[in-house]
Amino acid sequence: MNAAEVRRKELGAFLRARRERAVRADYGLPPVGRGRTVGLRREEVAFLSGVSVTWYTWLEQGRDINPSRHVLDAVAVNLRLSAPEHDYVLGLSGYAPAPREAAPGPEPVPDHVQHLLHALDPAPAFAVTSTWDIGAWNRGYEALFPGIATVPVRDRNLLRLTFTDPYVRGMLPDWEVTVRSFLADYRAEAGSHADRAAHLELITRLRRDSEDFARAWDDHEVRRFASRARTFLHPVAGRLDFEQHQLVPSDAPTLHIVAYLPAPGSGTRERMEKLVEGRPPRRLGPGLELE
């Protein structure tokens, strides 16, 4: 069998397995045969999905037909597939995953993501939502940006802080390059939720509060994230050199974990360890070093 035949056979087998496991009472249907309460008939799924019994039978048999996305969505809904199962059906047929509406309010950060952030200490690490709200962070990140815990939740957004917080701006020697790179990364991710209220509110507020943002946003730069070197000029620790990396948890795909790993040979790890421990600086002013 070629690749297309394999996918059609798998799709048919998957739909048949889910149909045969469906609980009839959940659909308001009576038992069939000898009191069988589990399993829908093909004609029942076909009727609910608005297709002919013959066509649905061919779909389960893996015949060479081309189901539309609309029909596959209807079948998935009527078989009451979970979101991952729905996406699996679409993927087998060559379609992109179904768009998901973001939940209202802040997106929750699972405990295991927070545990991972703590495990990365003293390297600064934090988790951002689909609109780059900062939902969790570790001690390293709070040492890098001590004000993060006191920023109002509504303003605790990576883009907003980068454009409007004087402390953050003062730590970035390449501020202009950094913010444009951030915007290009964000815009590449924002296409799938450009109509969502949280995104629209973020952009509207930033355009109002930052002329720099408005000018940069109107340039419409788009670029996928790539790991890169980052430098911060910390008011206590001095120059800190990192490699920036980004991870997406497979079981929390709307979250991105951003980690700043100390650059080898830069002394940054040692300075971050002392910052996290709260050790005082040896002296104040330019060129400041920790004891």
Automatic annotation (TrEMBL):
UniProt cross-references to Pfam families, sorted A to Z: HTH_31, MLTR_LBD
InterPro entries: Cro/C1-type_HTH, Lambda_DNA-bd_dom_sf, MLTR_LBD
Ranges where the HTH cro/C1-type domain occurs: 14-86
Record-linked Gene3D superfamilies: 3.30.450.180, lambda repressor-like DNA-binding domains
Listed name of the protein: Helix-turn-helix domain-containing protein
